[in-house]
Hints:
Order of helices and strands of chain A: HHHHHHHHHHHHH
CATH class of the largest domain in chain B: Alpha Beta
Radius of gyration of chain B: 27 Å
Oligomer: heterodimer
Helix content of chain B: 10-25%
Number of helices of chain B: 9
Strand content of chain B: 35-45%
Distance between the termini of chain A: 30 Å
Shape of chain A: globular
Strand order of the largest sheet of chain B: 5-6-7-3-8-9
Amino acid sequence: xxxxxxxxxxxxxxxxxxxxxxxxxxSVRYKQTILGLSWAVVxxxxxxxxxxxxxxxxxxxxxxxxxxxxxxxFSGILFWNYFANSLQAISNSILVNSNLISKVYFPxxxxxxxxxxxxxxxxxxxFIVYIILALSxxxxxxxxxxxxxxALLITTLIALGFxxxxxxxxxxxxxxxxxxxxxxxxxxxxxPIVYTTKQLSEKSWFTLYNVLNPLxxxxxxxxxxxIDNYDLLTSQNIMISIAASILVFILGIIVFDKREDSxxxxx
Amino acid sequence: MHIIEVDxxxxxxxxxxxxxxxxxxxxxxxxxxxxxxxxxxxxxxxSFTLNRGDxxxxxxxxxxxxxxxxxxxxxxTQPTSGQIHVKGKVASLLEVGTGFHPELTGRENxxxxxxxxxxxxxxxxxxxxxxxxxAGEQIARFxxxxxxxYSSGMYVRLGFAISAHLNxxxxxxDEVLAVGDADFQKKSLGKMREVASNDKTILFVSHNLTAxxxxxxxxxxxxxxxxxxxxETGDVLTNYMAALQxxxxxxxxxxxxxxxxxQQIRLKRASLIPELIEGQNYLDIRNNIKIDLEFWNTEPNQxxxxxxxxxxxxxxxxxxxxxxxxxxxxxxxxxxxxxxGHFLNDxxxxxxxxxxxxxxxxxFNFEEVFNFEIADFREDxxxxxxxxxxxxxxxxxxxxQLSDSI
Lengths: 267, 406
């Protein structure tokens, strides 16, 4: 706990650098693309449309849970994109910024934390799109929406935890760079992103599933915050997800702290 | 009051077949097998202390561990053993324009680079105009252009301008002065002198011994990772230059059989002797250099001459001189050449010579017979940048006032 406290303080002391690196990533990202910010709209909407097509036209699935299917899918994608993009950005952050790391000293964690910025902006844009979508479907918003920042924080912690572990190992073992995209690809289907936990909740292994994939609980948290009267989130879900994200975050910090001194020797 | 205390720090690197990053497969393998790794000590048991306001020059040949030492001192990498105590805020400049992003404008990069080097936003804002001013008019005009459109000169000028406005208590600098055109070099060395004149502590790695001599009061000479000498700049540089110049200044062979050369021509002795001025213990641009070559010839009645080439360390031939051709018999032949002082500029040089028959057939080319270094020497100057050119003649070049009206 002491270590985590020390590390967070380290970042706090260089808060300005974190902000400017975040700003750098955001402005570079939107300078290099013609459509700029609209990609943050196009990507989740396109993914949603593809699944709507698959469910309605191909698989003839009429209803997956009793909630508006567009909102179920879109809120899942909103969560998943934030988690997956953050995870990938954090995992690559040390290698991508190797020129900085080998030339200047600053708390290395800053580069990992600042790399979340782009995903966060994308999330906020997607969130606005979600509100427009919900209103256009004549759905009212959930009052739990005020708890959305909390769900976002839990997602950030777990993305940081895993991301820091991958970032630490990818410096010495470059294979790790290949593993993260695979996790993102399979994780999309192993997590209730384009379906809900309703279909799983009667299974005997449901608790085990929640423990093995704490992201399932977090998606349902997002949906509870976003979809009116959404009642699939259990207190067991909440406890497992919060505990898992804190544990993974601490583990990530410990692993990172153990390895950060040797980064320069492998870059 | 010591501001920096370095206590026997060492840095070890394991030289294995795959340097740097490894594949997961090899990583897992190495957990189970004990691989014999070659150990390399980049920095070995280095200790020194500096007081507030000291300017330390770090010199040594390539691979002596200078850069590794700077990286350890600036906390970029950790020493394998030993301890460092530093009191005060450190800024390190290991390259110009660290973290510049090509897509961002000059203005954005000033804030980015400044923050990376440890300046607060407030500090950058308050010095922004000065930075742009120092970087020059051209930068000011292209301040809102992405730096990827900058020429390399502009890039370096902007980078240096930011670094020059850093205000730490301890500044670690690696060779950044060797950048930019002559004009900008003058400006940056001027700035360094300005910085050096206040109570900042500076650690400065450079191959420019003139700059070290004039900016630093203390010098650390590293050799193969170890401290060769640490002390007052004058003492250390004198020994350093003297050591540099022991490189192959004389070679001689006792017998024909062991000597290099061909069937017909073998080298007996070659020597390069500078005529040092009293009190001087290494060669600089003022000194005459005497070169003596002796070689054996085994064929009678030969029309021979010697042709000597002098190369700069970069490979260009500076000059080629030849002896007259003469008729020589079996035995020992000698050729002597004197290169006058105030002719070659400071730098590293190589000498090769060939023995030529009948003015056209090369009998043997003795390559790189001498490898020597000429040090700089300046009086009454405030400029310490590298003097340009391969030659450094002291022609008389008078200047006078012709009239007092315009």
